[in-house]
Design brief:
The chain has 182 residues and is an alpha+beta fold. Helices cover 15% and strands 29% of the residues. The strands form three sheets. The chain has a four-stranded mixed sheet with strand order 2-6-7-3, with no helix packed on it. This is Urease accessory protein UreE.
Length: 182
Amino acid sequence: MPRPATPCWTHRLQGAPDVLADTILGTVGDPAFAGRLRHHVDIGWGDAGKHRQLVTADTGIEVRIMLPRGAFLRHDMVIADDGVHVVVVRRPREPAIRVRFADNTARAMLLLGHTLGNQHAPIDVDHDTLTAPLFTSAAAAREMLAGLGVIGEVTEMAMAADGWSATSSDHSAAHHHAGHHH
């Protein structure tokens, strides 16, 4: 159910944001949001878990995001609605490594998994590919793939649109590393 206009949409006051987004209302495809004018906010994978941020929509309005801790902003989530306008999360394309399973041996994928795990890199896995954010230069990433014998590409993609498939920051299974603890 859409929220009333008063709590989230404000008239521009001295330094105040145009919109306060303090809850996730649904997704843009929900019938309740049909016909609404959309203000898209680009939230990259690295900021999707930040519950407090100030962002500017593609239409120029300022949106103060103040969500509960643990919230994860997925692509197409509606975070504000005044009955006419909605603020919608959009995941931008970002530098990434993308590898197709069919193009690689099990050994190459195991070595890549080991390397990404040591970097604590989150990954997106679907039925035929693995995608991970680029933590280095494109040239260094290409060199790393070649050194591991992995056939893949360095590209730009929207990542974690629906959350990560796997991330080493999920510590539901305890593990330890020499020199640091989780």
